[in-house]
């Protein structure tokens, strides 16, 4: 195996405990460049907690998270974002009172300081980039619409678009197709396959069909630990996985 | 398809400027032409006093309306601004000649009554009008910065923040009342006479100060409008609704909250200084919890999402307060309570919300062709649809 520091993301010995309960226990895994890595596992396995730890929302009790050899565990949330890690929340987390355009514009990586934001100009570069992303996330016709009035699936796409406009090297998605119609799900898989050029994606997902469609590598979590890891094919046939998860 | 979606917001932007400017011009006409023509100097001076609270209400529109940070301690900043101005005026009124009957001439009378023998060090720089003017804005902004830094960096927010600001308002009142020799105590700083030799107690001075106040208020509205229309304004709305999303889009959220809190504090302080100039004194009764909450009510009645709404709300509530307390003094507090309940239960977006809901659509009907572009535009005028309010 290659030296871990060659990986885009190297999680090693990651542990976090809430009041003595170890939600994530001595977890290690690696994400390669241009890889779609999916984390699956039963409820309470600690999947979302892993994303929270990587993006700095939760502080680790032990272990390390290295992103391009930079230690993330000591960095603040907005610094982690600037380092190139984007994260989508489980429930669509968008700004209801703003238009689709404004939602995307806020995520545009410029003018992120107080005075930078005051002086920010909506110039051609911004408009073009927003239009380009909107096209990609199927919302080009909705730029002036208040985000509140989008459908659930469109909201999910909008949030993915808000991450794409930041052009992160690592994109983390928490259940991106939950609650989507079959058609929307298909489009989302299409979208994900389109956007993984030049970046890595870490996905949490329950929908096995969807995971099979997109995953390059799968990690199965159970009670905060890795139960199995590898290709979907391998994981599916792992008796341990079948017992705790797939069998149900 | 991309092209149309690009050009549409631009068209809407122009529409919005029209609406905002129209609203501001209307207010300016009311303040600068209609009221001075229609009211005697006593009533006009009273309106001038009300308008000083409108500065606080403007700050609350940004801080509370846009960013969702409810401060129940804006009286702190109003008061400090007022005190900074009062300190300068008091020193000018306490020349050795004017105070020669005191046991220590040359210091403010209340210090003499409290057996102080010399001017305290922190009063010394207030001999300078320049220093006092800078201090009016800088001291409250600095205090807000420290409070904001301590609270927002630790992610204290919501109700907890409101309670803490209230505690600060109580602390400052107690401090001012307790340190009588340095602050004038419960009576405040009274008997202010001249500003650089210009007697501020005359009717002419009151008229001039009224116009200065009105012009400053219009200036502050324009400044607030600029802030709300900048990306910063949209970020404030975004963090009100989805703070985590903003944080994980690469923003240090606390800095934005600190900024808007400081900005609101500075606005309040300008109002406080104008209050001192027009009313001729400053006392702790404008600093504490009760006045701070009253200021929130002005803003809530007018509409916490609308700059102009907040100004009208302030005028209206204060006018009602004066009328009621002149005729039925015992009823005022009940009326105020009822008003607040009414706002919360029946019209949560205040007068501006009612305007937006019932009046604006009627005004818009004749220009039906532009109805879409104009949606939510009459903005400067009381706006409400949260989208426009955002800008």
TrEMBL record, chain A:
Domain (ABC transporter) ranges: 9-248
CDD domains reported for this sequence: ABC_Mj1267_LivG_branched
InterPro entries linked: ABC_AA/LPS_Transport, ABC_transporter-like_ATP-bd, ABC_transptr_urea_ATP-bd_UrtD, BCA_ABC_TP_C, P-loop_NTPase
Keyword ATP-binding: yes
One Gene Ontology MF term: ATP binding
Domain of life: Bacteria
Matching Pfam families: ABC_tran, BCA_ABC_TP_C
Keyword line: ATP-binding, Nucleotide-binding, Transport
Keyword Protein biosynthesis: no
Name of this protein: Urea ABC transporter ATP-binding protein UrtD
Annotated organism of origin: Azospirillum melinis
Taxonomic lineage of the native organism: Bacteria, Pseudomonadati, Pseudomonadota, Alphaproteobacteria, Rhodospirillales
Gene: urtD
Automatic annotation (TrEMBL), chain B:
Transmembrane helix as UniProt keyword: yes
Protein's cellular compartments: Cell membrane
Keywords, in A-Z order: Cell membrane, Membrane, Transmembrane, Transmembrane helix
CDD domains named among the record's database cross-references: TM_PBP1_LivM_like
Principal location: membrane
Transmembrane segments: 21-39, 51-70, 129-152, 159-178, 207-227, 248-275, 295-319, 331-355
UniProt superkingdom: Bacteria
One Pfam family per UniProt: BPD_transp_2
Mode of membrane association: Multi-pass membrane protein
NCBIfam families: urea_trans_UrtC
PANTHER family in the cross-refs: HIGH-AFFINITY BRANCHED-CHAIN AMINO ACID TRANSPORT SYSTEM PERMEASE, SLR1201 PROTEIN
Protein name in the entry: Urea ABC transporter permease subunit UrtC
Gene: urtC
């Amino acid at each position: 195996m290659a030296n871990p520091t060659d990986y885009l993301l190297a999680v090693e010995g990651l542990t976090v405990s809430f009041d003595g309960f170890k939600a994530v226990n001595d977890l290690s895994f690696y994400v390669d460049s241009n890889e779609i890595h999916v984390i699956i596992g039963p409820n309470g396995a600690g999947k979302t907690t892993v994303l929270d730890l990587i993006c700095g929302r939760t502080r680790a009790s032990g272990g390390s998270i290295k992103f391009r050899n930079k230690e993330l565990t000591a960095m603040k949330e907005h610094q982690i974002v600037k380092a190139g890690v984007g994260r989508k929340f489980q429930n669509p987390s968008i700004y209801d009172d703003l238009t689709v355009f404004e939602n995307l514009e806020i995520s545009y990586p410029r003018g992120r300081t107080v005075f930078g934001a005051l002086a920010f100009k909506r110039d051609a570069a911004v408009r073009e980039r927003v239009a380009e992303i909107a096209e990609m996330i199927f919302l080009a016709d909705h730029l002036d619409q208040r985000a509140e009035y989008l459908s659930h699936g469109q909201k999910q796409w909008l949030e993915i678009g808000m991450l794409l406009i930041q052009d992160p090297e690592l994109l983390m998605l928490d259940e991106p197709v939950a609650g989507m119609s079959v058609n929307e799900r298909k489009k989302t898989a299409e979208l994900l396959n389109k956007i993984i050029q030049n970046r890595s994606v870490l996905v949490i997902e329950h929908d096995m069909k969807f995971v099979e469609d997109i995953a390059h590598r799968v990690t199965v979590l159970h009670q905060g630990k890795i139960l199995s890891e590898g290709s979907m094919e391998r994981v599916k046939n792992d008796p341990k996985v079948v017992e705790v998860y797939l069998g149900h | 398809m991309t092209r149309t979606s690009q050009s549409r917001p631009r068209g809407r932007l122009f529409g919005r400027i029209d609406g905002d400017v129209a609203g501001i011009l209307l207010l300016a006409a009311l303040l600068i032409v209609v009221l001075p023509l229609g009211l005697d100097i006593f009533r006009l001076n009273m309106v001038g006093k009300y308008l000083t609270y409108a500065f606080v209400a403007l700050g609350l529109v940004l801080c509370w309306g846009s960013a969702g940070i409810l401060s129940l301690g804006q009286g702190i900043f109003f008061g400090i601004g007022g005190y900074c101005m009062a300190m300068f005026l008091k020193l000018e009124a306490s020349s050795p000649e004017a105070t020669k009957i005191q046991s220590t001439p040359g210091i403010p009378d209340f210090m003499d009554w409290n057996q102080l023998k010399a001017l305290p060090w922190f009063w010394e720089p207030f001999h300078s009008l320049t220093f006092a003017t800078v201090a009016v804005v800088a001291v409250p902004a600095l205090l807000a910065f420290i409070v904001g830094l301590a609270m927002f960096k630790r992610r204290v927010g919501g109700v907890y923040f409101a309670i803490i600001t209230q505690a600060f308002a109580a602390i400052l009142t107690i401090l001012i009342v307790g340190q009588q020799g340095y602050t004038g105590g419960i009576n405040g700083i009274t008997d202010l006479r001249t500003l650089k030799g210009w007697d501020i107690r005359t009717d002419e001075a009151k008229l001039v100060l009224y116009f200065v106040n009105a012009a400053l208020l219009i200036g502050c509205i324009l400044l607030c409008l600029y802030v709300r229309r900048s990306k910063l304004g949209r970020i404030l709305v975004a963090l009100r609704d989805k703070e985590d999303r903003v944080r994980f889009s690469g923003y240090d959220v606390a800095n934005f909250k600190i900024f808007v809190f400081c900005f609101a504090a500075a606005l309040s302080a300008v109002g406080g200084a104008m209050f001192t100039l027009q009313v001729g004194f400053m006392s702790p009764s404008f600093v504490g919890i009760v006045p701070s909450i009253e200021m929130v009510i002005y803003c809530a009645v007018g509409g916490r999402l609308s700059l102009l709404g907040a100004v009208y709300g302030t005028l209206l509530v204060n006018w009602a307060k004066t009328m009621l307390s002149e005729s039925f003094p015992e009823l005022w507090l009940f009326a105020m309570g009822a008003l607040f309940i009414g706002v919360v239960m029946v019209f949560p977006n205040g007068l501006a919300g009612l305007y937006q809901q019932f009046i604006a659509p009627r005004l818009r009907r004749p220009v039906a062709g532009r109805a879409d572009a104009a949606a939510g535009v009459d903005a400067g005028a009381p706006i409400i649809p949260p989208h426009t309010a955002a800008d």
